[in-house]
Protein backbone atom coordinates (compact mmCIF):
# COMPACT_ATOMS: atom_id res chain seq x y z
CA UNK A 1 0.00 0.00 0.00
CA UNK A 2 1.38 3.40 -0.92
CA UNK A 3 1.97 5.88 1.89
CA UNK A 4 -0.60 8.67 2.18
CA UNK A 5 0.40 12.26 1.53
CA UNK A 6 -0.32 13.11 5.18
CA UNK A 7 1.93 10.27 6.36
CA UNK A 8 4.70 11.49 4.06
CA UNK A 9 4.32 14.89 5.76
CA UNK A 10 4.95 13.19 9.10
CA UNK A 11 1.43 12.72 10.49
CA UNK A 12 0.48 9.12 11.30
CA UNK A 13 -3.30 8.87 11.44
CA UNK A 14 -3.20 5.16 12.17
CA UNK A 15 -0.94 5.73 15.16
CA UNK A 16 -3.41 8.30 16.45
CA UNK A 17 -6.25 5.82 16.13
CA UNK A 18 -4.18 3.20 17.94
CA UNK A 19 -3.49 5.68 20.76
CA UNK A 20 -7.23 6.26 21.18
CA UNK A 21 -7.84 2.52 21.40
CA UNK A 22 -5.13 2.13 24.05
CA UNK A 23 -6.47 4.97 26.21
CA UNK A 24 -10.14 3.96 26.12
CA UNK A 25 -10.00 1.74 29.19
CA UNK A 26 -8.29 4.48 31.20
CA UNK A 27 -10.77 7.17 30.19
CA UNK A 28 -13.70 4.86 30.98
CA UNK A 29 -12.63 4.81 34.64
CA UNK A 30 -12.58 8.60 34.97
CA UNK A 31 -16.29 9.29 34.71
CA UNK A 32 -19.29 10.61 36.60
CA UNK A 33 -23.02 9.88 36.28
CA UNK A 34 -23.55 13.20 34.49
CA UNK A 35 -21.28 12.29 31.57
CA UNK A 36 -23.17 11.76 28.31
CA UNK A 37 -21.78 9.87 25.32
CA UNK A 38 -18.45 8.13 25.01
CA UNK A 39 -14.93 8.64 23.75
CA UNK A 40 -14.60 9.78 20.16
CA UNK A 41 -17.17 12.54 19.83
CA UNK A 42 -16.32 16.06 18.75
CA UNK A 43 -17.40 17.48 22.10
CA UNK A 44 -17.67 16.07 25.59
CA UNK A 45 -21.16 16.40 27.04
CA UNK A 46 -22.12 16.82 30.69
CA UNK A 47 -25.71 16.77 31.94
CA UNK A 48 -26.12 20.18 33.55
CA UNK A 49 -29.50 19.28 35.03
CA UNK A 50 -27.44 18.03 37.97
CA UNK A 51 -26.99 21.70 38.90
CA UNK A 52 -30.73 22.13 39.54
CA UNK A 53 -30.14 21.00 43.10
CA UNK A 54 -28.06 24.10 43.78
CA UNK A 55 -29.65 27.29 45.07
CA UNK A 56 -27.27 29.52 43.08
CA UNK A 57 -24.61 27.46 41.31
CA UNK A 58 -21.40 29.25 40.35
CA UNK A 59 -19.21 27.59 37.73
CA UNK A 60 -15.47 27.83 38.26
CA UNK A 61 -12.79 27.00 35.70
CA UNK A 62 -9.03 26.60 35.66
CA UNK A 63 -6.48 25.93 32.94
CA UNK A 64 -2.81 24.98 33.26
CA UNK A 65 0.03 22.78 32.08
CA UNK A 66 2.95 20.90 33.58
CA UNK A 67 5.78 23.17 32.43
CA UNK A 68 9.33 21.97 31.87
CA UNK A 69 8.79 18.92 34.06
CA UNK A 70 7.84 17.22 30.79
CA UNK A 71 11.54 17.39 29.85
CA UNK A 72 12.34 15.06 32.76
CA UNK A 73 9.60 12.64 31.71
CA UNK A 74 10.89 12.71 28.15
CA UNK A 75 14.47 12.06 29.22
CA UNK A 76 13.47 9.16 31.46
CA UNK A 77 10.85 7.64 29.19
CA UNK A 78 8.29 7.70 32.00
CA UNK A 79 5.06 9.43 31.08
CA UNK A 80 2.15 8.56 33.37
CA UNK A 81 3.32 10.73 36.27
CA UNK A 82 3.13 13.98 34.30
CA UNK A 83 -0.46 13.09 33.46
CA UNK A 84 -1.11 13.03 37.19
CA UNK A 85 0.72 16.36 37.53
CA UNK A 86 -1.58 17.99 35.00
CA UNK A 87 -4.69 17.16 37.00
CA UNK A 88 -3.09 18.28 40.25
CA UNK A 89 -2.34 21.67 38.72
CA UNK A 90 -5.91 22.01 37.47
CA UNK A 91 -8.20 20.76 40.23
CA UNK A 92 -6.13 22.09 43.12
CA UNK A 93 -6.40 25.59 41.64
CA UNK A 94 -10.14 25.11 41.26
CA UNK A 95 -10.90 23.84 44.74
CA UNK A 96 -9.47 26.86 46.58
CA UNK A 97 -12.71 28.78 46.04
CA UNK A 98 -14.69 25.81 47.38
CA UNK A 99 -15.65 24.39 43.98
CA UNK A 100 -16.11 20.67 43.39
CA UNK A 101 -14.33 19.58 40.19
CA UNK A 102 -16.83 18.21 37.67
CA UNK A 103 -14.86 17.46 34.54
CA UNK A 104 -11.52 17.87 32.79
CA UNK A 105 -10.41 18.16 29.17
CA UNK A 106 -6.81 17.73 28.06
CA UNK A 107 -4.60 18.59 25.09
CA UNK A 108 -1.40 16.74 24.21
CA UNK A 109 0.88 17.98 21.42
CA UNK A 110 3.79 15.89 20.19
CA UNK A 111 6.25 15.66 17.33
CA UNK A 112 5.32 12.07 16.59
CA UNK A 113 2.47 9.98 17.96
CA UNK A 114 3.75 6.92 19.78
CA UNK A 115 0.48 5.24 20.86
CA UNK A 116 1.92 3.66 23.99
CA UNK A 117 3.40 6.99 25.12
CA UNK A 118 0.13 8.88 24.64
CA UNK A 119 -1.81 6.12 26.39
CA UNK A 120 0.60 6.24 29.33
CA UNK A 121 0.14 10.01 29.70
CA UNK A 122 -3.64 9.62 29.56
CA UNK A 123 -3.55 6.77 32.08
CA UNK A 124 -2.01 9.18 34.61
CA UNK A 125 -4.54 11.86 33.74
CA UNK A 126 -7.39 9.40 34.24
CA UNK A 127 -6.02 8.04 37.53
CA UNK A 128 -5.71 11.55 38.93
CA UNK A 129 -9.22 12.45 37.72
CA UNK A 130 -10.54 9.49 39.72
CA UNK A 131 -8.58 10.73 42.76
CA UNK A 132 -10.16 14.17 42.33
CA UNK A 133 -13.70 12.92 41.71
CA UNK A 134 -13.74 14.51 38.26
CA UNK A 135 -14.66 13.06 34.89
CA UNK A 136 -12.21 13.06 31.99
CA UNK A 137 -14.72 14.44 29.53
CA UNK A 138 -12.59 14.75 26.41
CA UNK A 139 -9.26 15.67 24.94
CA UNK A 140 -7.13 16.11 21.87
CA UNK A 141 -3.85 14.63 20.69
CA UNK A 142 -2.08 16.68 18.02
CA UNK A 143 0.92 15.61 15.96
CA UNK A 144 3.22 18.49 14.96
CA UNK A 145 6.08 17.16 12.79
CA UNK A 146 8.55 19.85 11.82
CA UNK A 147 7.46 22.03 14.71
CA UNK A 148 8.41 19.58 17.47
CA UNK A 149 11.07 16.87 17.55
CA UNK A 150 9.92 13.24 17.30
CA UNK A 151 10.21 12.69 21.06
CA UNK A 152 9.02 16.13 22.12
CA UNK A 153 5.62 16.62 23.70
CA UNK A 154 3.73 19.13 25.80
CA UNK A 155 0.38 19.09 27.50
CA UNK A 156 -2.28 21.35 28.92
CA UNK A 157 -5.78 21.02 30.25
CA UNK A 158 -8.82 22.74 31.64
CA UNK A 159 -11.32 21.87 34.34
CA UNK A 160 -14.76 23.08 35.36
CA UNK A 161 -16.31 22.86 38.80
CA UNK A 162 -19.29 24.17 40.74
CA UNK A 163 -19.88 25.79 44.12
CA UNK A 164 -22.85 27.43 45.83
CA UNK A 165 -22.46 31.20 45.60
CA UNK A 166 -22.91 31.70 49.34
CA UNK A 167 -20.43 28.91 50.15
CA UNK A 168 -17.51 30.33 48.20
CA UNK A 169 -14.43 30.98 50.31
CA UNK A 170 -11.89 33.74 49.82
CA UNK A 171 -10.30 36.93 51.08
CA UNK A 172 -13.54 38.54 52.24
CA UNK A 173 -13.92 35.86 54.94
CA UNK A 174 -10.42 36.18 56.43
CA UNK A 175 -10.13 37.86 59.83
CA UNK A 176 -7.34 38.69 62.31
CA UNK A 177 -6.75 35.71 64.57
CA UNK A 178 -7.40 33.15 61.82
CA UNK A 179 -4.86 30.35 61.67
CA UNK A 180 -2.89 29.06 58.68
CA UNK A 181 -2.86 25.28 58.29
CA UNK A 182 -0.20 23.97 55.92
CA UNK A 183 -0.61 20.73 53.96
CA UNK A 184 2.54 18.85 53.01
CA UNK A 185 3.58 18.71 49.38
CA UNK A 186 4.83 15.48 47.83
CA UNK A 187 7.95 17.32 46.67
CA UNK A 188 8.54 19.90 43.97
CA UNK A 189 5.12 19.31 42.40
CA UNK A 190 5.16 20.96 38.93
CA UNK A 191 6.73 24.36 39.41
CA UNK A 192 10.25 25.75 39.36
CA UNK A 193 11.68 23.06 37.11
CA UNK A 194 13.57 25.54 34.96
CA UNK A 195 15.56 26.48 38.07
CA UNK A 196 15.85 22.92 39.35
CA UNK A 197 17.01 21.50 36.01
CA UNK A 198 19.59 24.27 35.59
CA UNK A 199 20.97 23.80 39.11
CA UNK A 200 20.99 20.01 39.36
CA UNK A 201 21.53 18.88 35.77
CA UNK A 202 23.38 21.72 34.05
CA UNK A 203 25.46 23.37 36.77
CA UNK A 204 26.00 20.50 39.22
CA UNK A 205 26.23 17.97 36.38
CA UNK A 206 24.10 15.34 38.12
CA UNK A 207 22.58 12.64 35.97
CA UNK A 208 18.96 11.60 36.33
CA UNK A 209 20.23 8.12 37.25
CA UNK A 210 22.47 9.43 40.06
CA UNK A 211 21.50 8.05 43.47
CA UNK A 212 21.51 10.79 46.12
CA UNK A 213 21.68 9.50 49.73
CA UNK A 214 19.85 12.48 51.21
CA UNK A 215 16.99 11.91 48.77
CA UNK A 216 16.92 8.17 49.27
CA UNK A 217 16.47 7.65 45.52
CA UNK A 218 17.74 8.83 42.17
CA UNK A 219 17.54 12.41 40.94
CA UNK A 220 15.11 11.38 38.21
CA UNK A 221 12.81 9.58 40.61
CA UNK A 222 12.72 12.61 42.86
CA UNK A 223 12.03 15.03 40.02
CA UNK A 224 9.20 12.89 38.65
CA UNK A 225 7.40 12.54 42.00
CA UNK A 226 3.78 13.37 41.07
CA UNK A 227 1.98 16.46 42.27
CA UNK A 228 -0.33 15.74 45.17
CA UNK A 229 -4.01 15.98 44.30
CA UNK A 230 -5.65 17.67 47.29
CA UNK A 231 -9.11 18.27 45.80
CA UNK A 232 -11.19 15.77 47.79
CA UNK A 233 -9.18 16.38 50.97
CA UNK A 234 -9.61 20.14 50.60
CA UNK A 235 -13.35 19.77 50.04
CA UNK A 236 -13.64 17.53 53.08
CA UNK A 237 -11.84 20.20 55.11
CA UNK A 238 -14.13 22.94 53.80
CA UNK A 239 -17.20 20.90 54.71
CA UNK A 240 -15.80 19.80 58.08
CA UNK A 241 -14.49 23.00 59.67
CA UNK A 242 -14.67 26.77 59.18
CA UNK A 243 -12.31 27.37 56.26
CA UNK A 244 -12.15 31.05 55.33
CA UNK A 245 -9.68 30.89 52.45
CA UNK A 246 -7.39 28.41 50.74
CA UNK A 247 -4.31 28.76 48.55
CA UNK A 248 -2.70 26.31 46.13
CA UNK A 249 1.06 26.78 46.47
CA UNK A 250 2.44 26.76 42.94
CA UNK A 251 4.85 29.00 41.02
CA UNK A 252 5.80 31.94 43.23
CA UNK A 253 6.01 29.94 46.43
CA UNK A 254 4.13 30.03 49.72
CA UNK A 255 4.16 33.75 50.46
CA UNK A 256 3.15 34.96 47.02
CA UNK A 257 0.35 32.43 46.59
CA UNK A 258 -1.06 32.85 50.09
CA UNK A 259 -1.09 36.62 49.59
CA UNK A 260 -3.47 36.16 46.64
CA UNK A 261 -6.29 35.07 48.98
CA UNK A 262 -5.79 37.64 51.76
CA UNK A 263 -7.51 41.01 52.19
CA UNK A 264 -5.60 44.23 52.72
CA UNK A 265 -6.51 44.26 56.42
CA UNK A 266 -4.32 41.36 57.61
CA UNK A 267 -0.79 40.04 57.43
CA UNK A 268 -0.05 36.33 57.69
CA UNK A 269 2.78 35.75 60.16
CA UNK A 270 4.31 32.39 59.26
CA UNK A 271 6.92 30.46 61.24
CA UNK A 272 9.46 28.47 59.20
CA UNK A 273 10.26 26.54 62.37
CA UNK A 274 6.90 24.79 62.12
CA UNK A 275 8.13 22.36 59.48
CA UNK A 276 11.11 20.76 57.78
CA UNK A 277 11.05 20.93 53.95
CA UNK A 278 11.88 17.70 52.09
CA UNK A 279 15.57 17.22 51.25
CA UNK A 280 15.21 18.19 47.59
CA UNK A 281 14.76 21.85 48.52
CA UNK A 282 17.95 22.06 50.57
CA UNK A 283 19.81 20.23 47.80
CA UNK A 284 18.74 22.74 45.15
CA UNK A 285 19.52 25.66 47.45
CA UNK A 286 22.96 24.37 48.37
CA UNK A 287 24.14 23.28 44.93
CA UNK A 288 22.75 26.37 43.24
CA UNK A 289 23.78 28.77 46.01
CA UNK A 290 20.22 30.07 45.85
CA UNK A 291 19.26 32.65 48.46
CA UNK A 292 16.45 31.96 50.90
CA UNK A 293 14.45 34.76 49.33
CA UNK A 294 14.83 33.37 45.82
CA UNK A 295 14.09 29.75 46.64
CA UNK A 296 10.99 30.68 48.65
CA UNK A 297 9.80 32.82 45.75
CA UNK A 298 10.18 29.90 43.32
CA UNK A 299 9.51 26.56 45.05
CA UNK A 300 6.79 25.37 47.43
CA UNK A 301 9.31 24.44 50.18
CA UNK A 302 7.21 21.48 51.29
CA UNK A 303 3.80 23.17 51.48
CA UNK A 304 1.46 22.28 48.62
CA UNK A 305 -1.74 23.82 49.96
CA UNK A 306 -2.56 26.25 52.76
CA UNK A 307 -5.90 26.78 54.46
CA UNK A 308 -6.92 29.80 56.51
CA UNK A 309 -9.27 28.53 59.22
CA UNK A 310 -11.09 29.90 62.24
CA UNK A 311 -8.79 29.70 65.29
CA UNK A 312 -11.16 27.45 67.23
CA UNK A 313 -11.08 24.92 64.36
CA UNK A 314 -7.31 24.82 63.79
CA UNK A 315 -6.62 21.60 65.71
CA UNK A 316 -9.68 19.93 64.24
CA UNK A 317 -8.49 20.86 60.76
CA UNK A 318 -5.08 19.26 61.32
CA UNK A 319 -6.74 16.13 62.72
CA UNK A 320 -9.24 15.87 59.86
CA UNK A 321 -6.45 16.03 57.32
CA UNK A 322 -4.34 13.53 59.26
CA UNK A 323 -7.28 11.12 59.29
CA UNK A 324 -7.33 11.41 55.48
CA UNK A 325 -3.60 10.70 55.21
CA UNK A 326 -2.52 14.30 54.63
CA UNK A 327 0.33 15.58 56.80
CA UNK A 328 -0.68 19.02 58.07
CA UNK A 329 0.39 21.49 60.73
CA UNK A 330 -0.30 25.00 62.02
CA UNK A 331 2.28 27.35 60.54
CA UNK A 332 1.04 30.83 61.33
CA UNK A 333 -1.79 33.24 62.04
CA UNK A 334 -3.43 36.38 60.71
CA UNK A 335 -2.58 39.68 62.37
CA UNK A 336 -4.40 42.98 61.78
CA UNK A 337 -2.46 45.29 59.47
CA UNK A 338 -2.83 48.08 56.94
CA UNK A 339 -2.86 47.90 53.17
CA UNK A 340 0.75 49.17 53.11
CA UNK A 341 2.02 46.21 55.13
CA UNK A 342 3.17 42.99 53.44
CA UNK A 343 0.43 40.37 53.13
CA UNK A 344 2.75 37.56 54.27
CA UNK A 345 5.81 37.58 56.52
CA UNK A 346 8.03 34.51 57.09
CA UNK A 347 10.18 34.36 60.22
CA UNK A 348 12.56 31.91 61.86
CA UNK A 349 14.46 28.98 60.40
CA UNK A 350 13.24 25.63 59.17
CA UNK A 351 13.75 22.73 61.53
Automatic annotation (TrEMBL):
Its main location: cytoplasm. Its EC number is 6.3.3.1. GO terms for cellular component: cytosol. It is found in: Cytoplasm. InterPro entries: PurM-like_C_dom (IPR010918), PurM-like_C_sf (IPR036676), PurM-like_N (IPR016188), PurM-like_N_sf (IPR036921), PurM_cligase (IPR004733). The keyword ATP-binding applies. Residues 175-340 form the PurM-like C-terminal domain. Keywords: ATP-binding, Cytoplasm, Ligase, Nucleotide-binding, Purine biosynthesis. Residues 58-163 form the PurM-like N-terminal domain. GO terms for molecular function: ATP binding; phosphoribosylamine-glycine ligase activity; phosphoribosylformylglycinamidine cyclo-ligase activity. It is an enzyme of class 6 (ligase). CDD domains: PurM. Pfam families: AIRS, AIRS_C. Pathway: Purine metabolism; IMP biosynthesis via de novo pathway; 5-amino-1-(5-phospho-D-ribosyl)imidazole from N(2)-formyl-N(1)-(5-phospho-D-ribosyl)glycinamide: step 2/2. It catalyses: 2-formamido-N(1)-(5-O-phospho-beta-D-ribosyl)acetamidine + ATP = 5-amino-1-(5-phospho-beta-D-ribosyl)imidazole + ADP + phosphate + H(+). PANTHER family: TRIFUNCTIONAL PURINE BIOSYNTHETIC PROTEIN ADENOSINE-3 (PTHR10520:SF12), TRIFUNCTIONAL PURINE BIOSYNTHETIC PROTEIN ADENOSINE-3-RELATED (PTHR10520). Belongs to the AIR synthase family. This is Phosphoribosylformylglycinamidine cyclo-ligase. It comes from Brooklawnia propionicigenes. The gene is purM.
Amino acid sequence: MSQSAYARAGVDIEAGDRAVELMKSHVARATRPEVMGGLGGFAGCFDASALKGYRRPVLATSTDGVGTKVAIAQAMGIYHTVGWDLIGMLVDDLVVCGAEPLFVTDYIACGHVVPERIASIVSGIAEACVAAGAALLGGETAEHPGLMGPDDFDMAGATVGVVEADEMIGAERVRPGDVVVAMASSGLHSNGYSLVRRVLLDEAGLSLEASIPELGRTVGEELLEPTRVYALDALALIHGVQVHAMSHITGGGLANNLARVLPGTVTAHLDRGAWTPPAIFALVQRLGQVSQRDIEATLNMGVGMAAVVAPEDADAAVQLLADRGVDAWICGEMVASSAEDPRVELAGQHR
